[in-house]
Fold:
Amino acid sequence: MIVRNLADARSCERNVVSKGWESARLLLKDDGMGFSFHITTIYAGAELLMHYKNHLECVYCISGEGSIEDLATGQVHEIRPGTMYALNLNDRHILRGRTEMIMACTFNPPVTGREVHDETGAYPAEEAA
Structure:
């Protein structure tokens, strides 16, 4: 059984900070679950181009408000508490935080822990440990 505390994850190397966001990574590849699980904060005013070419992601909004724009279709979806979105087609998108948003995120395959977005908005296929 794996038991972790969010406050503990936010105060150690499991917390990754990047431009416009930070992510407390509660489950990682080394945990052997087949997915990773993060609590991610999107900062108010952030506009993040993302394209997870190597991962599928599912996100659930716990708090805050923003939007996600599907760059293939131009469709914009509002995000508020209770909204879930899944990037089942490795969708290229822009995530915008109108307010600070707290998001629960899963990644498949799981991330190793220190990944940040590259210039295309993707995480690498496998981050060196």
In short: Residues 6-10 form the longest helix (5 residues). Strands lie at 15-18, 21-27, 36-42, 47-51, 56-63, 66-70, 76-79, 84-87, 92-97, 101-108.
